[in-house]
């Protein structure tokens, strides 16, 4: 049985990462660490906008806030933890935006305007992205013992918030794997249903089981769903979801 492990659960949007990480934490008794969600950070720092309406500098602020949260939570003195994501996820998502478009889930005309608006400054943002990648990968190599990567197997959840196209999601998945290869961190690609995933992960790392898997999963699903419902009950969430005026949408589009 593993005495100490710092394990990161990797995966892009709609791969069941949070539910898998939470269920694994409940089943094994190993604490789960995570960052605030994008929606939580937006309500706190940039109210009134969804992620797909953010400009590049606002996306940097969001990514740095999430990175700060991960470093704080993973350095809180716990011997073992299960990280929901990992510190270089923020780099992956920004790098994917540099390739696909800064707001990949926005309408095509917004993407076209952003592409033109970004010509004078994109080189600066790419240099920032490269630096962020170096910093977060170094941190990952220092803090994690191993990674579990969850491949894209499920349809993307149409919640109206995720700033994602399918192309963006697939590219993010590829970048996650490429980065793990580049860093030389031990990793395992684990697919299947959530019960199958948990059984495989527990077996790979010889983890303890303190709550049966069939009990841990509904507990995890309830916790994840409750967290989402708390967000949806906040008026700031609904303000961000409201249809914006044409003038405001144009203003979003013109700001890279």
The fold-level CATH name is: Rossmann fold
Helical segment count: 11
Q: Could you estimate the helical fraction of the residues in percent?
A: 55-70%
CATH class: Alpha Beta
Task: Tell me the radius of gyration.
Answer: 18 Å
Broad structural category: alpha/beta
Give the N-to-C terminal Cα separation: 50 Å
Structurally, the number of domains stands at 1
Instruction: Report the sheet with the most strands, covering strand number, pairing sense and barrel closure.
Output: 5 strands, parallel
Strand-residue proportion: 5-15%
> Which architecture name does CATH use?
3-Layer(aba) Sandwich
Q: Given the C-alpha coordinates, what overall shape results?
A: globular
Strand order of the largest sheet: 2-3-1-4-5
Question: In the CATH hierarchy, what is the superfamily?
Answer: P-loop containing nucleotide triphosphate hydrolases
Q: What's the order of the H and E elements?
A: EHEHHEHHHEHEHHHH
Low-confidence stretches: none
Q: How would you explain this protein's 3D organization?
A:
This protein is α/β, with parallel strands linked by helices. The protein has one domain (6-254): P-loop containing nucleotide triphosphate hydrolases (Rossmann fold), CATH 3.40.50.300. It is built from 11 helices and 5 strands, in the order βαβααβαααβαβαααα. The chain has helices at residues 17-28, 38-45, 56-74, 89-100, 108-117, 122-143, 166-183, 194-205, 213-232, 235-241, 246-254, and strands at residues 6-10, 32-33, 81-84, 146-149, 187-189. The protein has a 5-stranded parallel beta sheet, with helices on both faces. Helix 4 (89-100) runs antiparallel to helix 6. The longest helix is centred in the middle third of the chain and has 22 residues, at 122-143. It starts with 5 loop residues before the first strand and ends with a helix. The model has no long low-confidence stretch (mean pLDDT 87).
């Amino acid at each position: 049985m593993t005495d100490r492990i710092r394990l990161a659960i990797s995966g892009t949007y709609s791969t069941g990462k949070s539910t898998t990480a939470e269920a694994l934490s409940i089943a094994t008794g190993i604490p789960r660490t995570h960052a605030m969600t994008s929606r939580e950070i937006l309500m706190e720092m940039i109210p009134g906008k969804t992620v797909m309406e953010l400009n590049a500098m606002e996306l940097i602020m969001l990514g740095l806030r999430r990175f700060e949260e991960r470093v704080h939570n993973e350095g809180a003195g716990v011997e073992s933890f299960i990280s929901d994501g990992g510190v270089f996820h923020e780099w992956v998502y920004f790098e994917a935006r540099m390739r696909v478009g800064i707001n990949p889930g926005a309408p095509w005309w917004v993407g076209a305007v952003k592409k033109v608006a970004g010509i004078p400054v994109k080189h600066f943002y790419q240099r920032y992205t490269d630096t962020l990648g170096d910093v977060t990968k170094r941190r990952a190599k220092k803090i994690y013992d191993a990674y579990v990567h969850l491949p894209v197997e499920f349809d993307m959840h149409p919640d109206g918030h995720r700033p994602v196209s399918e192309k963006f999601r697939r590219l993010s998945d590829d970048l996650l794997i490429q980065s793990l290869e580049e860093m030389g961190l031990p990793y395992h690609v684990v697919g299947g249903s959530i019960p199958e995933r948990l059984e495989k992960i527990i077996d790979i790392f010889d983890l303890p089981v303190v709550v049966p898997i069939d009990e841990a999963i509904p507990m995890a699903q309830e916790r994840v769903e409750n967290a989402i419902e708390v967000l949806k009950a906040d008026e700031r969430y609904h303000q961000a979801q409201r249809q914006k005026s044409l003038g405001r949408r144009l203003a979003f589009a013109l700001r890279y």
